[in-house]
Amino acid sequence: MFDIERWQEIFETLSKNKLRTFLTGLSVASGIFILVILLGFSSGIQNGVTSQFEQDATNSISVYTGVTTKEYKGLNPGRRIQLKNEDFNAVVNKYDDNLEYKSAFYTIWGGLVNYQNESGNYRIEGVMPDNQFIENADISQGRFINHSDIIEGKKVAVIGNKVSQDLFKGEHPIGKNLSLYGINFKVIGVFFDPGGERDESKVMMPITTAQKAFNGGNDIRNMSYTVKMSDNFDEAVKLSEQISSGIESDIKETHIIAPDDISAVRVNNTLEEARKIYSLVDTIKAVFWFVGIGTIIAGVVGVGNIMLIIVKERTKEIGIRKALGAEPMSIVGMILQESVFVTMFSGLFGLVAGLALLEFVGPLIESDFIKYPQVDFNTALTTVFVLVFAGAIAGFIPAYRAAKIKPIVALRDE
Amino acid sequence: MGNNSLHVLKGINFDVKQGELVSIMGSSGSGKSTLLNILGMLDEADEGSYTLDNVPIKNLNEKIAANYRNKFLGFIFQSFNLINYKSALDNVALPLYYQGVPRKERVERAMHYLDKVGLAPWSHHLPSELSGGQKQRVAIARALASDPKVLLADEPTGALDTKTSYEVMELIQGINDDGKTILVVTHEHDIAQMTKRIVNLKDGVIIDDSMVEQVRASQYV
């Protein structure tokens, strides 16, 4: 392998057969190049689709409390469990790495809302900024509640489209004041909700404001979280269950609830929507794997073919070399070393060219469904080695057979 | 090749001493090429023994055969069998490569033999740029390069015109004069007359083996 004389012989052969070397190299390089581009765009489309549907794929965890049904540690059943701000913060602190959006709620189920002469009874929710994403609320005018609204406990409200239609009758609602039980709230935004009219019959305000205005103190009614998207559905289910049961047992512990009391704390998680998105992403992945494997097979066949032709073409040369005293294995070794060198060199060249193209062209692509096309370098490198190995095998068999032929047969004039 | 075996040689018994220049004659199908291939270890006899320089040549595996060919034998073929992408010099140097001779020495020795066959000025030409006679002389230089015990020439003049044939024979005679043992397979009588001994084959047996008065090729050139 490290025999300088052998390498000299090989380089001489390669440089004296420029066309053959070039064509072999070109086919290997272009194969790898196409494969890299393909893999890159497959990951780009995966990224694009994932980011398009990520919101719908989030699986959300909601925590509600109720009344205890079992006696535990000397405490009577029938206690009402009240969640506090601290419960919310504890969960956020503990699972921050896995949670994407989080919001606590302080809800007034029915509240009388007035605007000038119009009035209606709506659900009033004190929420956090993240709730916009948890509920997929689509802001059509103005803005949603932000962090400073929470900190300062501003008297602001975001109203559902239904509320806006009922009370404002087509008037522009932003900046107007609503009155709730005599307290004035400034409308800062209007939202649509994919959930329909029922979900749009709501008035949302900063949770701190709600707690203050409606004597809530530290209390919260319930809390919602969304879990970050995992690589696949099974992982998502596992993670979601892990977090749900973690939250449940933490709350049971802080509030001294029997571990088997199912009505005192309820933790729900929804994964149904997520399943569809995961299966979409899985399908895309599978399609590109299929195409990728197909491309590799085509590449292997191509390289193998070239090797076969090269060896066939060199049968006579092999006979001459044997007549001059070359050992069969030295011939096989020479042909292999040569072909591995060429495929490796051109394979790496194709790899670099493909990566460079992705690097420079990738960011220029403006499509919502293709994002960051890129290739895992190790995957690409593995592919190169697969091709080189396949080329070597494909070259070895005919080379070995050619070296086995008696020189007299190889030298026979056709 | 194939399953049909054909007995070509049916009992050949002869000795060649060092320094002899022997021609093997016979019509096509007489077995002369098969005999030469066996002598050249390019083919193997299914029966009988063959001793070369006191070494019994039998049960050869490919590796040993390759080594023997490299050390003991030099081949000259009818169709030259030069490697067409290598220069004359590199072709001559090839047997030395397989002997493990370092590159520099290889080039020097190859150059020496090319000079000996009168082709030093053409050392960097490819075979395709040489005439038939020149190609055969390169092949002769290549056969000599490894300094073998025996030169085996299979119809060395078969692809050459008469004048060039005599030039090649003159060269072969010169090499023989230097003490090299040479076997020439030919079916041309004038060529055979330029050797010192003619072995006549017919249907796989020797029908005649006699010394001849050597005709020097130089008188025709």
Automatic annotation (TrEMBL), chain A:
It holds the Pfam family FtsX. Keywords: Cell membrane, Membrane, Transmembrane, Transmembrane helix. It is a multi-pass membrane protein. GO terms for cellular component: plasma membrane. GO terms for molecular function: transmembrane transporter activity. InterPro entries: ABC3_permease_C, MacB_PCD, Macrolide_Exporter_MacB. It is found in: Cell membrane. Residues 290-407 form the ABC3 transporter permease C-terminal domain. Residues 21-234 form the MacB-like periplasmic core domain. The keyword RNA-binding does not apply. It comes from the Bacteria. The chain crosses the membrane at residues 21-41, 286-311, 331-357, 377-397. Its main location: membrane. Belongs to the ABC-4 integral membrane protein family. This is Putative ABC transport system permease protein. It comes from Gelidibacter algens.
Automatic annotation (TrEMBL), chain B:
Residues 1-221 form the ABC transporter domain. One of its GO terms (molecular function) is ATP binding. It holds the Pfam family ABC_tran. SMART domains: AAA. One of its GO terms (cellular component) is membrane protein complex. Keywords: ATP-binding, Nucleotide-binding, Translocase, Transport. SUPFAM superfamilies: P-loop containing nucleoside triphosphate hydrolases (SSF52540). CDD domains: ABC_MJ0796_LolCDE_FtsE (cd03255). Belongs to the ABC transporter superfamily. Macrolide exporter (TC 3.A.1.122) family. This is Putative ABC transport system ATP-binding protein.
